[in-house]
Every structure is written in structure tokens, then in C-alpha cells.
């Protein structure tokens, strides 16, 4: 009895051990070195063939009388019948049986075998072919016709049966019978090759009209491009140009939208070329290019360009090249409709052609591709499609209403709650001004201020129109919306000054500099200063200094200087120094004091004595020098960390003293100039490594004296400590 672990109900009386597959034990190769004599695979095969025994063949039997022949036939028939009973479905057995009976000249028995085989599998066309060949080979013509007739009746979709049947009748010279068989076949609507065989059959016997009628039935049964092209070539071969053209025209009417229409139009155009009709061919090419989708017209474009190079003039060749480029642009915008640069190039191409309807169509297709996200960076290129569209309608087509509609639709499309484009508002307003519609322009600009109030062009337009009161109101609204905008304050004051309203301009400046938060006070004060938060970035300070110095052109101080109010200017500088101690302020103040003498000389009479002028100039130089002294004292005592700014200030002071000539005193500044020192400081990188960076440090005279005192004090302490140590050792 087997144990519980080895027993299993599914195994019956066997155990698991009995069912295990025992593999042969692998043989261990003890010696892996190559044998001294190597044997190739070719030698092994040759030896195997040499040792192979001869094939055993049955002995040949010679039949000497009719009895032996009958026995032989009976035995062979019995073998074939046995094989058929075992494998009735095997066609090769039936065929060998029938062929053996045929070899015995017993045609009735052979025919009987073929009939029995067909009765078992009449759908096998190979049986029918072999059966008919048996009848034809033995010249049983009527029996062969009977077999072919039965075959094509049962299997009408097998073209080979029809071809063989027709071929037999044609060999026998029965042309009418062959034609009748073709007609029977055509009723089943065979493929194109069957129809073409029928046409070739008629052409072999010079039946042109019959062939033409067959072609007519052929294109009705198979309305394809290839069928019509074959029909047209048939007519062209017969010299019937008008008939061939008519065939192409029928094909164009029916198959203009077909996928193979390109092939049809190319064939039609080449037909007209052969007929010496280049104008017809050109019209066909253009018609095809207008109706066939661009993605399927690549070969057509190549043919058209080659045609124009051969038959066309300069304009025709250019049109063909434009068509080819148009195809390229269509392919680009089809692949990526949001590539606005491709649309720009496409529109520019169409504008060179000058077809207004097509240009408008391209513009409409381009502006229909709205950016997917409501972010300004995605709209910046897209908005220029609208601008170019509007300018084209205004300048080229001179359609005012259409231009107005373009601007209106563009302004509706932009999401003004998230961002806006001042350029499109201004272009729309300027368009209305050119149309002498000032009310419409003001309405557009009013809407622009409500939706994009940062724009300043509205005021400039009103100023050009001469509406001063409206400009003042707009400036007031602008400053209510953005009181920290220095540019607006300075422009407003400049407007009042241009109108000779000095007191109003001064009041605007006073109101501006009293604002608590100005985004660029340097523009109003004619100086530049930076907040203490930028101290750690010297390069950034320099960059911003240069940038804002360029912007500081019109300011309060310039205004007072232009008005000749020197005392007011000094007071403004002092107020500015209360806000910021930037070195540019000090330098600007000192330069003002140095140039004040020249301004005073202009106001004096011409007969003023020269000595008084020199004294006044010395006084101005003294005032400028005093301002530099104040600045140097401030950096020395209150801001010693701003060494670079102090060095720049002293360089400007030195340059000014040099420019004073004989009245200047360069030695006053030279004693204060610092020494430039190259130093290195460690910098820790992101990966934890340390590297050293060189920088320029400044050592001022007062700092060098302090350093010397510290060295003397340290030497004195060292000497004192050394004396105390020697006394202890002596004790």
C-alpha cells in the first residue's frame, strides 16, 4: 500500500515516483583537450553515405499474355480502390487512378473515375481542369465542351476555367462560340483583366466597334480611373482624338473627387500635350490643383512645374513655383496649425500673387487657430495675424467696413480680464482717426483705458489733436490709477511747462515728490539711488545705475535750472539728500554748484568786470568743494562700508578739480585717495568644495594710520610680555 504522500487519486494504482521522468545521467568529460585527429562534418556524412546499403527495389514484371494483363489490371484497380476507401478526400489518389486508366487506353473507365472524383468534390477547380485536359488530349471535343460548360456553370468565379474554355474554342476556330462564352462570362462582372481579355480577343480579329462597345460596358462595370485611362488610350491608338477627349471628360465628371483623381488629371494633361494643346493642358493642371487636396497632389505639382518649364512663359513658371510653395505651406500648417510663422509666410506668398479672395481665405483660416492657453506669451505672435489682416483690408482692398469688423472681432476675442494688447487698441483708434471718426476713436481709447489702463498713447493722440483740457483730465485719471508712476508725473509737468504754466508745473513736481511710494524717484530728482536691499549685488547696482541714468532726462531739477531758480534748485538738492545719500546725488549737486557761475554770468551785464567774475567762479568752486567734503565725511563716518562708492566720488572730485585748471587744487583730493588692494575671499560651492575669488578692496589713509597704531601696540605688548618672562626665569 503506498503512503499518503505518494498516493494520488488521479494516478490510479501508480505512485508519483512511477510517473517521474528519469533523464539519463549526464556524462562527465574528463579530458577536454582536442583530439590529435580532427573529423569534419563533411567526412562523417561521406562515410555514412558510403556505408549505406543499396535501395531494395521490386523486380520488374513482364506481362506475356492477356491473362497476366487482366490479373495485373485487376490487382492495380484493387490497390487504387483500397486507397480511395482509405483516403477518399485525397485528390492525388483520384488523379493517379484516372491517369492510370488513361494509360491503359480504357477511356470509359478513366472518365468514370473523373466523374466519381468530381461527384465527391465538385468545388475543386483542379479536378475540372485535369478532367477537361484529359478529354482534349484524347480529342474528345464534345466531351471537353461538356466538361467546360459544367465547370463554368458550377464555378463561374474561377477565371482560369473561362480562359481555358475560350482558348480551346479559339484553337478550334470557333470564334463565334468563343465570343458567346465571353458574353456569358461578362454577365458575372469579372475583374478588369477579364474585360481586357475580351477586348484583346476582339482586336485580334479587327472588331474595333465591338471592342469599343466592350470598353463602354467595362467603364460602366468598373468606373475607375485605370479603366477610363485604358479606354482613352484605346481611342487614341485608333486615332480617335475627339473620342479619347470625350472619355477623359466623362472620367473627370465622375471621378473628380476620387482618391486616384491625380493620376486621371495627369494622364488627361499629358494627352492634351501629345495633341499639341498646351493651353488645354494648363487649364487641366490648374483645375486639378484647385480641386485635389494638397496632401495628394505632390506628383501633380512636379508634373505642372515640368510642363510650365517646357511650354510656359516667365509668368507661367512663376505661377508653377508659387503653386509648389503653396503646397509646402499647406503641408506645414496641416501638421502644426499653431505655427503662426508658417501662416505669415503663407499669407506673404499669397499677397505676392494678389488673389484677394484667396488672401482673405488664408487670413480667416489662420486667425481661426486660437492659442490653447490664455497666457500672453502664446498670443504675442497670434495677435499680429489680426493686425496684418486689418492693415491688408485697409491699405490693399480699401474696405473700411471690413477693416472695422476685423478690429472689432479681434478686440472681442482677447481675454482682457487676464491680459490685453495696447497695440491693437491704438491701431483701431488710429484707423478711426484716419476715417475722421473722432467719436469712434475716443470710444475705443476710453474702452482701452478701462480694460488696459497702463497705456499712455491716448494722451499723446489727444495732444496731437490739440485738446489740452482733455489731456489734463486724462493725466489726472492716469495719476489716480497709478500715483507711483514717475514717468506720468514728469510728462504731466512737461506738458504744463510747454504751455508756459510754470506754477502749475512746479505744483505738479511738488505733488509728485511728496508721494510716499514712487517706482522711480530718480526720474523726478535727476539722480539715481538704490535701496539698501541691493547692497550685496554690486554688478546689479551698476547695471541698474546705467539703465535709470539714461531714463533720468526730464525732472524737477532740470525744470528749476531751466527757469533760472538757483536757490530753489539748491533747496531741492538738500531735500533730495535728506532722502538718499547716493554718491550720484552728491556729484550732481557739486556739478550744479560748479556750473552756477556760468549761469550767473549770462544774467549779468556785458560790461561786468573780469575780476568780479573770477571771484564768483572761485566762490562756486568753493561751494562745490564743500559739497564733496560733506560727501566724503558722510562716507567716512556714517557709511564706512561703502568703500567703492566713496572711491568713485573721490575720482569724480579729482576730475572736477583737474577741469578747474588754475583755480583747482588737485592736492586736496590726492591726499584722500585710497589704495587699491587685491584680496581673495573663500566661496563655498554647491558640492561643498571651496574656491577663492579675487576682489578689489580700498585702503584709505585714516585706515592705514589705525593699522600702524595697532601694530605698534601689539609690538609693545609682546616686548612687555617678554621682559616679564625673563625676570621670572632670573628669580
Outline the fold blueprint.
Blueprint: H1 16-19, H2 41-50, H3 66-86, H4 91-103, H5 107-120, H6 125-137, H7 141-154, H8 159-171, H9 175-186, H10 192-204, H11 208-221, H12 225-237, H13 241-255, H14 261-274, H15 278-291, H16 298-311, H17 314-335, H18 340-353, H19 356-367, H20 376-379, H21 382-395, H22 400-413, H23 422-434, H24 438-451, H25 457-465, H26 468-481, H27 486-498, H28 502-513, H29 521-525, H30 538-551, H31 556-563, H32 566-579, H33 583-603, H34 610-637, H35 643-659, H36 666-670, E1 675-684, E2 690-699, H37 701-730
Antiparallel strand pairs: 1-2
Helix pairs in contact: 4-5, 6-7, 7-8, 8-9, 9-10, 10-11, 11-12, 12-13, 12-14, 13-14, 14-15, 15-16, 16-17, 17-18, 18-19, 19-21, 21-22, 22-23, 23-24, 25-26, 27-28, 31-32, 32-33, 33-34, 33-35, 34-35
Family: Belongs to the crooked-neck family.
GO cellular component, one term: spliceosomal complex
Subcellular location: Nucleus
